[in-house]
Every structure is written in C-alpha cells, then in structure tokens.
Amino acid sequence: MNKTKVRHILDEIGKMFPDAHCELTHSNPFELTIAVLLSAQCTDETVNKVTKSLFRKYTTPEDYLAVPLEELEQDIRSIGLYRNKAKNIQKLCQLIIEKHNGQIPQEHSQLVELPGVGRKTANVVISNAFGVPAIAVDTHVERVSKRLGLAKADDSVLEVEKSLMKKVPLEEWTQTHHRLIFFGRYHCKAQNPQCDICPLLDVCREGKKRMNVAKNRKTKEVKTR
C-alpha cells in the first residue's frame, strides 16, 4: 500500500474519531497497568466498573499484597480469568517493589518482564503513561488493519504491529492506535460493520465483498418476487 492510501485512511479515521483516547479509567501509571492487565479478554466498560471500587481500596502495590489472594479474587470476580489475573497482580506488585522501588518501570523491556504484562500491555502503558510513541495491537486494531489492507490477512499480531509502525509516521503512532480502536469498536465491528456508510469502503477488501453479497441478495429477492 502506497503512502497516499495510508494517508487517506489515517485522515478519514481521524475525521471520524478526532478525540479517540484510552477508555480505561486511571490516574497514574500503576493504575493503568493494573487496568490493562484486567482488560485481557474483557471489555473496558467492565474493567472500569470494577476498578472504580478497586482503586479506592488499593492505592499502592503494598495494598494488593496486604490481603489474601482470595480477597483480591473476590474484588475482581466479575472479570474474566479473575483467578489468574489476581495472581498476576500480586506477583507484579511484589516484583515492582523488589526491583523498581514500587514504581512501574518506563522501559518496554522491563515492563514485559512483569507478570501478566505482554507486549500489548507494555505498549499501552509506555504510550499513555509515559508519552512514548507506540502501537498496541488488540483485536480491534488487528481486525481493522487487515480489513483496510494496512496489514496482510495472515499476519500475526507482531507482524501487524511492525506493518503499522512502517506505514504510520512515528509521531502518530499513539494517536493512530486509539483511532483504530475506536474505528473498530464503534464503526467497523467484527460482526456488523457499517460498510454502507463507511468513508473507507473504497480501500476495504472485506467491505467490498460484504456490499457485493448484499447487492446480489437484493437482486435475487427482486427476481423471486
């Protein structure tokens, strides 16, 4: 895909979602890290409901370690995989106390060493908490990137990230990450994308297919009447 098409995609998504942002409620890097860890296979909306009380009860890494694991599990019970996430939260808190003076490290390489923190989580934290340009690839970013041709259909998550890093200007990485999420979450949905009103239908392979299928279906319906 040439630079002109990439610019067209970025500009159109930018017009649709100029104020796209991280929707996980947090007030510092530590809270953001916990929130992103909890968000795996879970909606931001559900996480925010849980962290509203969670972040009042626990404000420091020491707080999370001062309660039995079972109590923390109950506090996040409504979140998927809560048992495993509770274990990772306590392990993470222990590690940042022992190795990072109780602070979330700012280096990507140190972040991914934390329990429950993968590449995506680390990218979200460094970009949103520390202002380091990064593109975190979640399900929305992956789906949209492949549909619009910003990545290949069979690319792995890491390959999608690398493809976007090559195509998108460095200073737009974080902004583009948020806008692609909003585009995928509120417009180009997994099951019912709004292809009929999409300004990017001209560059979307799947969108064109969906519209052709819909057109053919209508034609058949007319003929059978």
TrEMBL record:
Catalytic activity: 2'-deoxyribonucleotide-(2'-deoxyribose 5'-phosphate)-2'-deoxyribonucleotide-DNA = a 3'-end 2'-deoxyribonucleotide-(2,3-dehydro-2,3-deoxyribose 5'-phosphate)-DNA + a 5'-end 5'-phospho-2'-deoxyribonucleoside-DNA + H(+)
Start and end residues of each HhH-GPD domain: 38-186
PROSITE patterns cross-referenced by the UniProt entry: ENDONUCLEASE_III_2
Stored SMART domains: ENDO3c, FES
Cofactor binding summary note: Binds 1 [4Fe-4S] cluster.
InterPro entries recorded: DNA_glycosylase (IPR011257), Endonuclease-III-like_CS2 (IPR004036), Endonuclease3_FeS-loop_motif (IPR003651), HhH-GPD_domain (IPR003265), HhH_base_excis_C (IPR023170), HhH_motif (IPR000445), Nth (IPR005759)
Membrane-spanning parts: none
Cofactor(s) the protein needs: [4Fe-4S] cluster
SUPFAM superfamilies: DNA-glycosylase (SSF48150)
The protein's enzyme class: lyase
Gene Ontology molecular function: class I DNA-(apurinic or apyrimidinic site) endonuclease activity
Residues forming coiled coils: none
Keywords annotated in UniProt: 4Fe-4S, DNA damage, DNA repair, DNA-binding, Endonuclease, Glycosidase, Hydrolase, Iron, Iron-sulfur, Lyase, Metal-binding, Nuclease
EC id: 4.2.99.18
Annotated positions binding [4Fe-4S] cluster: 188, 195, 198, 204
Domain of life of the organism encoding this protein: Bacteria
Family to which the UniProt record says this protein belongs: Belongs to the Nth/MutY family.
PANTHER family: A/G-SPECIFIC ADENINE GLYCOSYLASE/ENDONUCLEASE III (PTHR10359), ENDONUCLEASE III (PTHR10359:SF18)
Stored NCBIfam families: nth
Purpose: DNA repair enzyme that has both DNA N-glycosylase activity and AP-lyase activity. The DNA N-glycosylase activity releases various damaged pyrimidines from DNA by cleaving the N-glycosidic bond, leaving an AP (apurinic/apyrimidinic) site. The AP-lyase activity cleaves the phosphodiester bond 3' to the AP site by a beta-elimination, leaving a 3'-terminal unsaturated sugar and a product with a terminal 5'-phosphate.
Name of this protein: Endonuclease III
Organism: Paenibacillus residui
